[in-house]
Amino acid sequence: MIDPALLDPTGNSNGKGSDLVALTRAICDIPSVSGDEKALADAIEVLLRGCAHLEVLRDGDALVARTNLGRDRRVVVAGHIDTVPIADNLPTRLAGAGDDAVLWGRGTVDMLGGVAVALALAVELGAPGSEPAHDLTWIFYDHEEVDSALNGLGRLARNHPELLRGDFAILGEPTDAGIEGGCNGTMRIELRTRGVAAHSARAWIGENAIHAVAPALARLAAYEPREVEVDGLVYREGLNAVRIEGGIAGNVIPDACVVEVNYRFAPSRSVEEAEAHLREVFEGFDVVVTDAAGGARPGLDDPLAAEFVRSVLATTGGVPAPKYGWTDVARFSELGVPAVNFGPGDPLLAHKDDEHLPVAQLAQCRDALRAWLLGG
Amino acid sequence: MIDPALLDPTGNSNGKGSDLVALTRAICDIPSVSGDEKALADAIEVLLRGCAHLEVLRDGDALVARTNLGRDRRVVVAGHIDTVPIADNLPTRLAGAGDDAVLWGRGTVDMLGGVAVALALAVELGAPGSEPAHDLTWIFYDHEEVDSALNGLGRLARNHPELLRGDFAILGEPTDAGIEGGCNGTMRIELRTRGVAAHSARAWIGENAIHAVAPALARLAAYEPREVEVDGLVYREGLNAVRIEGGIAGNVIPDACVVEVNYRFAPSRSVEEAEAHLREVFEGFDVVVTDAAGGARPGLDDPLAAEFVRSVLATTGGVPAPKYGWTDVARFSELGVPAVNFGPGDPLLAHKDDEHLPVAQLAQCRDALRAWLLGG
Lengths: 376, 376
Prior knowledge:
The structure is a homodimer.
Chain A: H1 20-28, H2 38-49, E1 55-59, E2 62-66, E3 74-80, E4 93-95, E5 102-104, H3 108-124, E6 135-141, H4 152-159, E7 168-171, E8 180-181, E9 185-194, E10 198-199, H5 214-222, E11 227-230, E12 233-236, E13 238-247, E14 252-253, E15 256-265, H6 271-281, E16 286-293, H7 303-316, E17 321-322, H8 329-334, E18 339-341, E19 356-358, H9 360-373
Parallel strand pairs in A: 3-6, 3-7, 7-18, 8-17
Antiparallel strand pairs in A: 1-2, 2-6, 4-5, 5-19, 8-18, 9-15, 9-16, 10-14, 11-12, 13-15
Helix pairs in contact in A: 1-3, 3-9, 7-9
């Protein structure tokens, strides 16, 4: 359970709106490692269902809450409620005070801070006395940190595609309260070599499959990843071996070796083009694609997106940046909904055991988002 | 138990001496995978202790049986009684008949055929009416197929060095009934690279430890192993990666990679020289030696060895060849005892699931060895 008082926009101690620090802590302190989101989803559901201005649907441990105000345009705000495994970093710990305070613990960055911001605004905007400029769809979903086939947003897109529709989407992934547009695509391939096993005392009878990967590693080591400008943002690519395995025993010539390679490619390149590029790079090798997800163009040339960027940056400063990591903005992009990442927390701290959040970013994100959603 | 009648030099069906095929089968059919040699050692001990002409000592599952005839010179004949794990290839199976018969099963080649030959001659030579030209030491030992620290011959050399003394040693390892002199040395090293872990979406923050092994694999792939003549025999070397491992997860730049390399080097090169060579080949890499055993020069220039070779080849034909694999002849070599490999079975079938022995080689080896030991 989360105390509803934490979400009262006028009720917190400093009078500046909902108590986001206490709310973020309450959310983080309900463990919600992927697959175990039920308790947190239950707590969020209670709060959403308490709002007369929201129509609520639950699918597994995903929740969708929508206003139906008859506005011309609809904005979707989405965030995942699962975290990577806890590493002795819960319950949360608050260090320092006031605007300089830092909140430590699993989920503070990725991305329960963003969930707290969204939850506070979901309860506030559209309630009596609050007139958002657009209709709003709030999505809280499960299983983002694991196999993409389990992803709750993907499941919603399959089960209720109409609920993901909108004119613009904001994903609350950590961006240090800046705006990160689109995302790189990702592809994993396996390069497999075959040899002939033999006793290593008579190596000439065999054929060494580990030696056979030498040219592939040489090409990887020499590869110069591109920097590609897409819609005004520069995406940096990457091509890396992430796993290598070969060998039978200390006295046997290995008959098989496998190299797993991860390619991160700019959103201007399709999955098919990415695969063709890898087949060219690794010509002569047996290439098997094991996993692939296209990127998302930043879409900042969309009028609603441009308006959002202008409004937020007026509050936060800075310029839009590319998102390098693959995020669920790509799912919106696939549905034809322009989407950006915008949330509290340093993305480089995601998944780290020392994950921590400067709490000032919570209010900064909420205030910028609220101002724009109210037509500011 | 092994039926003593199988060892009666005059009692077998074809009248040509002990029934080596039945004896080999009886020995193979007592499972004796390394560490589990007790039953076979017990059975051999009973037979040896039944011989008044032999002085018998047991150390663990190793047995040493010696004649004390006051001869000028002493010849050692040794063989290990353990096998690699059984692969549904016991009990033995005899296919065909007479001299063309083939005996299938674990241990037939490596090296219980050689053990049968030695056991038959141990019981026969020096018994009343038999006058060997040299004093004889018969050694049957455990744990050859596993970690060299467990090796029964090595243990005997530590506990009873005097029992291994002799003027010449014959190891009954499979040589297809030919003579293989000396053996290559073997060294295992690990090459380790270090990198910096990072999310693969931001690879430039990390440093890829798998890419860093590329030059080492390129050097291995390009390496041209030497052929080295030592005392008239040509030894073929080999340098091979036998294992490679690296990687943390499909989206993480790996921070460590290890390549295990096995170097087989001619007996003209010492362990120290072998290490120096590898440090030169892998200059720039962190090289750790994990295992090393020097080779053994063939020693065929020793007068007793030369006499043995002449005598055996008069029966079997052929010419002496180098032994490529490391064998326990190196232990005798270290003790200053010239030693050769001579035994039934194709060494290329050792450790294979389809291990099998043309039984004609059993009598061929026994007859050649008996003739020489009797001063023929």
